[in-house]
Amino acid sequence: MTDDTWGQVCNELQKAVGQNNYTTWIAPLELIDLEDGIASFQAPTKFMCDWVSRNFAEPILSELRRAGVSAERVNISVPSRRPMNGTANGATRPTVPAPAPAAPVAKPRKTPRPDEPLPGAPLDSRFTFDSFVVGKPNELAHAAAKRVAEGGPVTFNPLFLYGGVGLGKTHLMHAIAHDLQHQRPDLRVLYLSAEQFMYRFVQALREKQIMDFKEMFRSIDVLMVDDVQFIAGKDSTQEEFFHTFNALVDQGKQIVISADRAPGEIKDLEERIKSRLSCGLVVDLHPTDYELRLGILQTKTEAYKSEYPDLKIAPGVLEFVAHRITSNVRILEGALTRLFAYGSLIGREITMDLAQECLKDQLRQSERKVTVEEIQRKVAEHYNVRLSDLVGPKRLRAIARPRQVAMFLAKSLTTRSLPDIGRRFGGRDHTTIMHGIRKIEELRGTDSQLAEDIELLRRLLES
Ligand code: ADP
Ligand code: MG
């Protein structure tokens, strides 16, 4: 295969997996060779290698084939540090990690560590990796958090986690801190909210202890700042945060940041900070899907049952809740707690009827009043296509994809049936609608641009 062909394949991949995924995962790959139907690539780190192998081998293969390259398998490895007689891809399974960055792992400290506790926020003992349920929407965030929790050499800095409220950002950060406390008690780990960061900073200014403040923050090995969007528009806090951030990164210390949106989208945050925040691994926690919600409900019910073995829930109740309460995990947990309390109060099995009765307020809140027509209008606007095209017969991708997005939103935001939705899409058959919905569900997992579009539209429509 020529470089040209690979270049073309890359162009196609960019479209197939979305710009974000492409830049983060595909662009850094180096094509090594293509022999016996095996396309071999090298990735810069073991983490990337694992992630790409698991999630992008399929799209890479299919785009290769579409470009006429006969490939049966994709093999991704990490460059071996010892040269192996000129061939770099000797190993089928990557075993040698990427060269560690400048800072060695266990560097002896120059000065004895101060005994005073770090002024962080208390950790919630329930927020552990064990209690975190992994699904498609949070898989990458979880994997990256796990990686940081090992406390090994820094592979990406910062780790930037973002997503809507109640999707598990704080949970993951606490989980990292818990794990590090056990596995690497030698490391100084500090978790705090951006608000607390500001509070400390202002207090230090007031008490003329800014040198102590700086020294303390620069002595940390792993710094985690939650809800960083809070410092937007607060100029001197931003400035100090930026210096702290840079000082730690320069020393090869790990930083984990969370926010409610991507770095580039935080208003009133300085450009240079945005760009520093984007230069590590930026991962979004997608809105929950049905499987994840059900997984969370089941896990929490099991945990609850082990304490209260008398609790009985009729089959189908958890599925019902997972279907109907879709906003975020915090609200889902609230609903479940309410169910348990209700169940223990009446001392009977929680049936579907009882669940409906007990959760009627929560269910009403998540009941959607949005119409299919409104969805179509907003989607057409967002993708800049004509409304008449969106419901019309044209099959161009530039129209067909937005149409499928609209179908998907119509199904998930309204209570309309598939045939009913079909009628509102120019009299299409319900199987066409179903196909469109499936397609979007499938793409959403790999195409983060699409996932973002959908989330944005959903928020617009529900507001
Ligand atoms: P965020 O910081 O993103 O607003 P949190 O981390 O505070 O959200 O999560 C809200 C609640 O939902 C917490 O009680 C948390 O334990 C729970 N939660 C979120 N995601 C998960 C998950 N994947 N598995 C189990 N619990 C979760
Ligand atoms: Mg939070």
From TrEMBL:
Keywords: ATP-binding, Cytoplasm, DNA replication, DNA-binding, Lipid-binding, Nucleotide-binding. InterPro entries: AAA+_ATPase, Chromosome_initiator_DnaA, Chromosome_initiator_DnaA-like, Chromosome_initiator_DnaA_CS, DnaA_C, DnaA_dom, DnaA_N_dom, DnaA_N_sf. Residues 155-288 form the AAA+ ATPase domain. Residues 1-91 are annotated as: Domain I, interacts with DnaA modulators. It is found in: Cytoplasm. Residues 344-463 are annotated as: Domain IV, binds dsDNA. ATP binds at residues 166, 168-170. It comes from the Bacteria. Residues 80-121 are annotated as: Disordered. Residues 371-440 form the Chromosomal replication initiator DnaA C-terminal domain. SUPFAM superfamilies: P-loop containing nucleoside triphosphate hydrolases, TrpR-like. Pfam families: Bac_DnaA, Bac_DnaA_C, DnaA_N. NCBIfam families: DnaA (TIGR00362). Domain I is involved in oligomerization and binding regulators, domain II is flexibile and of varying length in different bacteria, domain III forms the AAA+ region, while domain IV binds dsDNA. Oligomerizes as a right-handed, spiral filament on DNA at oriC. Belongs to the DnaA family. Plays an essential role in the initiation and regulation of chromosomal replication. ATP-DnaA binds to the origin of replication (oriC) to initiate formation of the DNA replication initiation complex once per cell cycle. Binds the DnaA box (a 9 base pair repeat at the origin) and separates the double-stranded (ds)DNA. Forms a right-handed helical filament on oriC DNA; dsDNA binds to the exterior of the filament while single-stranded (ss)DNA is stabiized in the filament's interior. HAMAP family: DnaA_bact. This is Chromosomal replication initiator protein DnaA. The lineage of its organism: Bacteria, Pseudomonadati, Pseudomonadota, Alphaproteobacteria, Rhodobacterales.
